[in-house]
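Structure tokens please, single chain.
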Amino acid sequence: MKARIDAILSEAVQRGDVPGVTAVATDGSGTIYEGGFGKTILGQDADMTPDTVVWIASMTKAVTGAVAMQQVERGTLKLDAPARDVLPYLGEVQVLEGFDTDGKPRLRKPVRDITLRHLLTHTAGFGYDIWNPEILRYREVMDVPTIGTGLDRSLTTPLLFDPGARWQYGIGIDWAGKMVEAVTGRKLGQVMQEELFGPLAMDSTGFRLTPAMRARMARIHHRKADGSLVADLKREVPQEPEFEAGGGGLYSTANDYLKFVRMVLDGGKSARGEVVMKPETVDAMAANAMGDSTVCLLKTVMPALSNDAEFFPGVAKQWGLSFMINNEEAATGRSAGSLSWAGLPNTYYWIDRKKRLGGVYMTQILPFADVKALPLFHAFESAIYGR
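Here you go.
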């Protein structure tokens, strides 16, 4: 298996499909594959390894979901209580119904309250401007900064529908992170460090880049129209933001994130046997938590940041408490009921509790769902399953 995966990944680098890539996998009891190929910055000397630090973007969401569910365990947060009880602002958010002839947004009160369940399952009604033209237009009309600025005002976009009506990928988990901060009295990164990263020995994961992390950092690359890649040495998550982005602000490594994957596979225990969360909490996170709603195609509005994106088209998918769930076996071998998601610069993971397999794959390329990087992830996963 190792020789096959090494060949798949190294040949992709040699073809110029990716500047650098790292991938790791676990069977729950320990690492069964790890490898790194290519460079952290195209044309420079530093090698990509499983300990290279990358921006994991929306792979942050599962971590935020985990610390939120720890608070549910402790009774400080409730899944189905009005979120406005914790954050009054969430009782003031309105639904966008369109725009007047003069371009001003038309808003109305939602028919029901937003809950933590809605936020964790992307059914609250929030969206992202990358995949929704109405949110993009609202930002422009109302001069709301983009989410990447780290400014609190970037979260003040309206709902696209009444909470619970359907699935729409968006900023809900950023608000879940703010709920965690509100009930703990601590910054989200501090909560993560004390409740997850410390117990799991994830010492290269955080919102802020330490000097040691920065020294091992890969940079984002952009896929140009001719298929070639160019490094972007300036793009970076704000290091002194107004809010720590529970929806997409973390940096991490493949080896670090695999420890989180393994914790989920092991029902909430660290590799040292420490209970990080109860098995029943992990079970709840891994179960469909949004009724009959289904995950749909992410239709791009910003082609420079994302292609149209959908995992395993034709396979029904739903959402647990911060994970996507495929309801049927995937072509890669991933079991029905497995958990997964991804990060904007083509970072991906999956957690197959049935077959006790999980993996992490990381490169640093925009746009998301890259024409070379995403198929390479699927090839890696398929090889882990012997497909």
